[in-house]
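Example record used in the benchmark description.
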Amino acid sequence: MGTRQNSLIARIALRGTVWVTLGNYAYQLIGFVALLYLRRLLEPAIFGLFDLAAFWVALLSVRNKIGLNYAALRQPVMNGAVMGTVFVLDLVSGLLSMTVILLAIEPLSRQFGYGAELALALSAIAAAELLAVFSMPASLALEKEMQISRNQLVTLMSYALGYAVAVLLAFAGYQLISLLSVSLVMSALAAVLSWITYTRRLPHMRHERWRFDPSLARQLLRDGLTTGLTLTLLTTIVSQFDNFLNATFISATMQGYYGNAYKIANWPNVLLTVVISRVGYSVMTRMLDDRPRLTHTVRLSLWLLCVLGGPLALTLGLGASDLIEVLYPGGKWAASAPLIQPLAATSLANAFMSVGYWLSVALGRRRFTIALAVTQAICLLLGGSLLVRPFGIYGTLIAVASASICGFVMSQWFVQTTLDMRLRDVYAVLEVLSAHSYRWCAC
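Model output (structure tokens):
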């Protein structure tokens, strides 16, 4: 029975991996094409201002710090008590987030000299996050039942329509509003499509009576808080504090160039890490009592990053100038090219780091999860604060690189000691593939 169940999980995971991979590539293709038009229509400073607003929303939001979705996925079953409790907690945290962000607009403007455009951006992004509350229960139920491909399809359709609206608004001359419309349209449409998919794919759960369970709420908060706080450190401080430094202490235009370079350099991370985090984490949580299969899952994740991520990152770094000229002719975004090379290396390091992070979350190793996030955050906070003013954008790059290196080393140490893996054998393929990619690019 155990072998049959493991085989079933393996088939579901493989199917989920294929659909998530295909959906994620389509997701990136839509975003790539849409941003290609938007970057030609909008000024770099608009993108810098949007990145700055996104940083403050992520930092001030309460909702993203309690990790409800990850805690709920660890529950044995998804029933009415779980869904009702998650919805109440998510709604309360969403309303609290909206209140905190709106109250913070005036102090932030006074402290850093931000204008009215940032206030508009903060309000719009906070509203989009509140709308996302209404898709959470259905999305969680689909994910728990391994209907990952359906969730991916909902996200893809919402994403496509959101960017279609943004491009139309940009053509009409709306600068910042066109970017803000993406998240608003996405959240609203995802809420509708998630419930349509839920009723069709999980008919047996439609009769579940939702209820709020106080003891379950305490358990979810206790289990999710560690993941939520560490993800906030990783996705807000580690991944977005550089945006704050550039936009606040250099210029919004420089942040526009940096943000463009970061998105291009982040292709290996985005194309591969999303698959690992979406499918790999779900599989890891189901194999906690089967250490050989868990080890094999992690080994395959690292091998995937080696085979696809290494050559892709090296190719992006070596061909940065030509790539920018092809994508954005005319020199408007030429200042992004020199930034791609160092950011491509840090992006690949972050992709490898994510394997150890999600393994620690699946195993419930809270101390390491916290240590990993805190160490990276300290590196970026100290390095960025000390280096960005005297060295400008290069100070930001040094701080980002130091945080990525620390995270990579800690993550690989955790994987090797926890699962007793020989990482030298896993990474041997990376050296060979990188050498072939370098010779190909040189030609």
